[in-house]
Design a protein that fits this description.
Keywords: Cell membrane, Membrane, Transmembrane, Transmembrane helix. The chain has 19 helices and no strands. The chain is mainly alpha-helical.
Length: about 350
């Protein structure tokens, strides 16, 4: 009896020890990506993806594989859960009724458009869902969160990685080009904030584009973007319900025991509520937000390690056309909304 009791901690430490090599690999890649991003600019998520793909030869290594799998599938849930500290209900009130409906429409219509375009391009619906959600909500974070609701397969991992690479590239291009659109169309501060916050994919690029113009535009754009981030919660809940049986079928008996609404999503909702009530000190919000970013960067690095350029190349040109179409659609939609509101106000 005593022998069994003593062996349990050893087995636990042994299982944890098997995760160390793969986790350390992904953490070093994430640190390198963050350093390059901090020193030379550019999205650290994209750097983590590309550096991770350079280490694909370790994906089948028996010592690294367990840690890589945990980083790719478990850390993303922690990162998404902690995103809740960045959202408060008061943000929704500050946007106004028109802004709320416009931004909610951007999310729903972009996902619908992406599914339709994927069908036209003869691409899998899962890729259309991932790319539409990532473009419409909050970039790579949304892609990772939506991926967690889908049946886990190698194809879906490839689609997630492809979406992440494309979204990072198009979001960076949007950060550079959309301020020129604001200048060319003569948008006012509130209009520019709504357009940038509603059309650019990732939070960091929204902040960069907004503050390129002015502090007021940067604040307005960030506020609009955070509402789109808040839309992640209902979208993920809906997808969890829709794909529950598919996840059970793909995961076997173990998946059948999982709750319909997972723990990471309940933590996300709880943090939104607590933050809305003002119970979280600014230090806790900052720390949790930073931890969320690190978890997502490490997770995307792991996803990069698991996928090769050769497999991505096999997907062809259609996914690029899909991502470009989504980016143009949401930008055109937000510009149309801005000009319609301007005409309505002038009437």
């Amino acid at each position: 009896m005593a022998t069994n009791t003593l062996s349990q901690p050893r087995n636990t430490f042994g299982a944890l020890g098997q995760l160390v090599p793969g986790l350390m690999l992904c953490m070093v890649i994430a640190a390198a990506a963050s350093f390059v991003s901090g020193q030379y600019g550019g999205p650290k998520f994209l750097y983590a993806l590309l550096i991770g793909m350079a280490f694909h030869f370790l994906a089948d290594n028996g010592k690294c594989l367990p840690g890589i799998e945990v980083a790719a599938k478990k850390l993303v849930r922690i990162g998404v859960a902690l995103l809740g500290v960045r959202i408060a209900v008061s943000d929704i009130h500050a946007i106004g009724t028109v802004g709320v409906f416009a931004l909610a429409g951007a999310v729903g219509l972009t996902i619908g458009f992406s599914l339709l375009l994927a069908r036209v391009l003869r691409l899998p619906p899962m890729l259309g869902l991932l790319s539409g959600g990532a473009t419409g909500i909050c970039g790579i974070s949304a892609a990772m969160a939506i991926s967690a609701t889908l049946p886990q397969s190698r194809d879906n991992e490839h689609f997630t990685l492809l979406t992440a690479i494309g979204v990072a590239a198009f979001s960076t291009a949007a950060m550079v080009l959309y301020p020129l659109v604001v200048s060319a169309t003569g948008l006012a501060t509130a209009e520019a904030g709504l357009f940038l916050g509603g059309a650019i994919h990732d939070v960091a690029q929204v902040v960069g584009a907004g503050f390129m113009i002015s502090t007021d535009v940067g604040d307005a754009a960030t506020l609009a973007k955070m509402f789109r981030v808040a839309m992640l919660m209902p979208v993920v809940v809906v997808l969890m319900v829709l794909f529950h049986q598919d996840r059970v079928a793909a995961g076997g008996a173990g998946a059948a025991k999982q709750p319909l609404v997972p723990g990471f999503l309940m933590v996300f909702v709880a943090l939104v509520i607590v933050n809305s009530l003002g119970w979280l000190p600014s230090e806790v919000i900052t720390l949790s937000s930073d931890l969320s970013k690190w978890c997502l960067v490490i997770s995307i690095a792991a996803l990069g390690v698991k996928t090769s350029f050769e497999k991505l190349a096999e997907l062809g040109w259609q996914p690029i056309a899909l991502l470009l179409g989504n980016a143009l659609f949401i930008a055109g939609y937000m510009l149309s909304v801005v000009f319609l509101v301007r005409l309505w106000s002038a009437a």
